[in-house]
Design brief:
alpha+beta; Inhibitor of vertebrate lysozyme, Ivy; five-stranded antiparallel β-sheet; globular; single chain; about 80 residues
């Protein structure tokens, strides 16, 4: 049981190209931040979920779930 708990908490992060972003996330950015450019996409994978953390050139950070739906927005001051 302890081995399973250890495995389920492991996360794998990687920087990915914009082409790996789910279509719903791309559409959200295009509709809500049409003038912003994507600077960085970090894909965070765990055993049970995937998240995409997108940093835009207007200092906004958007976190999307594996389906491309936004789950958190953050604006750097």
């Amino acid at each position: 049981m302890a081995g399973f708990m250890l495995l389920s908490s492991c996360e794998f992060d990687s920087v990915v190209p914009e082409s790996e972003l789910p279509p719903a996330a791309k559409a959200y950015i295009e509709q809500n931040q049409p003038d912003a450019k994507v600077l960085l996409i970090k894909k965070e994978r765990s055993l049970f979920k995937t998240r995409y953390n997108v940093t835009l050139d207007n200092r906004m950070e958007i976190e999307f779930n594996g389906d491309g739906l936004p789950v958190d927005l953050d604006m750097d001051d």
